[in-house]
Amino acid sequence: MNPNIISKAISKAVEAKSEKTHEGYIMVNIRPGEKVSAMLDVLSHLNGKTPSEIIGQALSGKLAEYAASSPDHGSAILDALEQVMTDHGNPHENSALGILKKEGLVKISNPFIAKVALPKKK
Questions:
Q1: Are 88 and 80 in contact (CB under 8 A)?
Q2: Which superkingdom (predicted)?
Q3: What is the pTM for the complete model shown?
């Protein structure tokens, strides 16, 4: 039997089990190569943050930048912000929503009932 066929079968079985156990979403684990891992270790050491924090902040910044790039994203941003506030309270300051709040692109008028709005244009 071809080893390629066996690996594909195992991969499909693991994926099927993963889909069943995570109720609608799949977890993906990505392992960087040696060079990327070494670079992340250096950046981590220089910044005093874990590699996860460095990557998370970079992704959050880019996501906030993208969300703010068009007024068409306004309702999705507000829906996400209301959901986060309902589930967890105020968004973390380094999250995409926290960055948008810090920059004044969203306004939380009542944090206790998750009432949010886009600031009015002057």
A1: no
A2: Bacteria
A3: 0.61
